[in-house]
Specification:
Blueprint lengths: L1 H15 L13 E10 L8 E8 L2 E6 L6 E6 L4 E4 L1 E3 L7 H4 L4 H4 L3 E6 L10 H9 L13 H11 L4 E4 L1 E2 H9 L8 H16 L4 E5 L10 H13 L3 E5 L7 H15 L3 E3 L13 H13 L4 E5 L4 E5 L13 H8 L2 H12 L8 H5 L4 E5 L13 H8 L3 H12 L4 E5 L3 H7 L5 E3 L20 H16 L5 H8 L1 H7 L15 E4 L20 E6 L2 E5 L2 E2 L31
Parallel strand pairs: 1-4, 1-5, 6-7, 7-8, 9-10, 10-11, 11-12, 12-13, 13-17
Antiparallel strand pairs: 1-2, 2-3, 5-18, 14-16, 15-16, 18-19, 19-20, 20-21
Length: 578
């Protein structure tokens, strides 16, 4: 590197003047030097002892001995040094508006939050802006932007510790053009939806994200989704999906995702791969076989996951989607109609559901209530739906309906659905990356008003502690690859995801012997341990295990961003290298 050559020339010049007075102490050549750590560069290869030198926002030296001191020196002897971790499924959209640190994930070494599972923070119409404000929970803020890019750049200006990026939500695009009803787009409306995707991609979004078990996303048919993803693909982005089913129609949903990828020419990723419900656990083999067959045909199909046997969503996932048409307010209005209520309860109890009935698979004892808007209901936080139903003297189905009506929200809930053996097995899949499916928050302030899933505090540390160190399901080098270079490649990121000279300085230092999660379902707001330092764009966001005042996070752009010299959309996805 030129920097190395310049340093060597300076040393020779000093030597030529050695006959004069004693030279002053060497001046810092780097802003930060991380010394003596076990370097995991993100490639998946075995670690090497090395120093890392950082100047401004870049890694400028990687080697056995940094040739000069740094203004900040970090002793990493006995620790691992790795690229910053990428959260492929973040729900920090609201939480970063309240607290830009994202402490629960910063403490795990996360340096990039990728949002956009179906719903994204734009493009909004005025009606969508009003609805978003009216439906806010504990965290409240004015919605002053219309495009997703405006939201992301606004976060950067407010100050965030981690980098941020987003997919544009297929649900958000649909609502923008069609509203929240169960309708199909006309040719003109679909053309508008496609144009909104192109605009988002040229603003730097990563692709199209969907969440197809929820209304109104569930009303979108395969043709509509393929049309939107075709636009994302020709703009260098890909499709990422909470599929139409992870339970009784799991395999059919995998097939649909692969078909959307085939038609559009874009890669696709399955959000939080899982086989949900005991009767569906054996289907994981079939799903993996379908994925690997598509990969063998040349399609880039990848997956991500969280490291827990319970998911978390709302009580909307326990009710049929037809009753939710038109949005939250219409859903609640219908639930108050006795005849509709009876029909909904019958469908919630049916052995064969026409919708993704998570409550049936989890059972009422396996549904734990996590988040309410109504202060009067907050004492129910952490209780099982069955417990609440017994206390009220009603059925679990009646209790769920009553809670939605009383709270005026979907009511946050955890569902215990997955097999631990399947979770552990998935961590070793070579195309698996990781996402918390949660918000980055802190155990203080507004965040104490509700109870998160422990994955908000432990998803990445749990991988390194439980599945790498304790169970040895995969090597540390491979786990680091799946947290860094793999998702960076899938996202098409420029100069991120590796510890390589010239790359952006997103770096984590952690102790492989102690890193781990402490969050549990009874006590979820417990910070992970073992991560000592996190560098984001060359600045320390976490030092000696404590957050700093720095807010160095930036918006990270996708390949279609028109700000790149070679950015913008092309004729088809085939014109991009995947």
């Amino acid at each position: 590197m030129k920097l190395k050559a310049l340093f060597a020339a300076g040393v020779l010049a000093l030597g030529a003047c050695a006959t004069g007075p004693a030279a002053p102490p060497p001046q810092p050549f780097f802003d930060i030097v991380i010394r003596g750590g076990d370097l995991y560069d993100g490639s998946g290869t075995a670690p090497v002892k090395a120093d890392v030198g950082i100047s401004n926002d870049r890694i400028v030296f990687v080697g056995p001995r940094a040739p000069a001191p740094g203004r900040v020196e970090i002793d990493a002897r006995g620790k691992a040094v790795a690229p910053g971790f990428i959260n492929m499924l973040s729900w920090s959209t609201d939480s970063l508006m309240a607290d830009g640190r994202g402490l629960s994930e910063l403490k795990q070494g996360v340096t990039l939050q990728v949002m956009g599972e179906g719903d994204s923070m734009g493009p909004f119409t005025p009606a969508m802006q009003r609805n978003y404000e009216q439906r806010q929970g504990d965290i409240k803020f004015p919605v002053t932007w219309t495009t997703l890019d405006q939201y992301l750049t606004g976060l950067e200006k407010r100050g965030v510790s981690m980098n941020v990026a987003s997919f544009v939500g297929a649900t958000t695009i649909r609502i923008n053009a069609l509203g929240e009803g169960d309708v199909d787009p006309t040719a003109g409306q679909l053309a508008r939806m496609r144009a909104l995707v192109v605009q988002a991609m040229e603003d730097g979004d990563m692709g199209v994200g969907s969440s197809l078990i929820y209304a109104p996303a569930s009303y979108a048919e395969t043709d509509e989704l393929a049309a939107l993803v075709t636009e994302a693909g020709r703009c260098g982005g890909f499709y990422i999906s909470h599929m139409r089913s992870e339970g009784d129609r799991f395999i059919e949903a995998v097939d649909e995702l692969i078909e959307i990828s085939r038609r559009s020419g874009a890669p696709a990723e399955i959000y939080h791969l899982k086989a949900a419900g005991r009767s569906n656990w054996p289907k994981l083999d079939q799903a993996i076989a379908r994925i690997e067959a598509a990969r063998a045909r040349g399609q880039r199909i990848t997956t991500d996951m969280y490291t827990y046997t319970a998911g978390a969503t709302g009580l909307d996932a326990a009710m049929p989607v037809w009753v939710q048409a038109g949005g939250l307010e219409e859903w609640i209005k219908r639930l108050k109609d006795p005849a509709i209520r009876r029909r909904v309860i019958a469908e919630m109890r049916a052995e064969k559901s026409t919708f993704e009935n998570l409550a049936r698979h989890a059972g009422p004892d396996g549904v734990v209530l996590l988040a309410f808007k109504n202060p009067a209901l907050k004492p129910l936080t952490g209780k099982a739906l069955a417990e609440v139903a017994r206390a009220r003297g009603v059925s679990p189905e009646d209790a769920a309906i009553d809670l939605v009506i009383e709270d005026g929200s979907r009511v946050g809930a955890a569902y215990f659905l997955m097999s631990e053996e399947n979770v552990a097995r998935q961590t070793a899949l070579p195309y698996m990356s990781f996402g918390s499916d949660a918000e980055g928050q802190a155990p203080e302030g507004v965040f104490k008003l509700s109870q998160p899933h422990p994955r908000a505090y432990g998803n990445f540390a749990r991988l390194l502690g439980k599945y790498v160190r304790e169970e040895k399901r995969l090597t540390l080098a491979e786990a680091v690859r799946k947290l860094t270079a793999l998702p960076a490649h899938n996202l098409g990121l420029r100069e991120r995801g590796r510890l390589v000279e010239g790359y952006f300085a997103d770096v984590v230092v952690f102790d492989p012997a102690t890193v781990g999660d402490r969050a549990t379902f009874p006590q979820p707001q417990q910070l992970a341990v073992g991560v000592s330092h996190v560098v984001v764009n060359g600045q320390l966001a976490l030092a000696d295990g404590e957050p700093t005042a720095a807010r160095p996070g930036r918006v990270v752009r996708g390949r279609g961003w028109k700000g790149w010299p070679d950015g913008g959309c092309r004729k088809s996805a085939a014109e991009w290298n995947w």
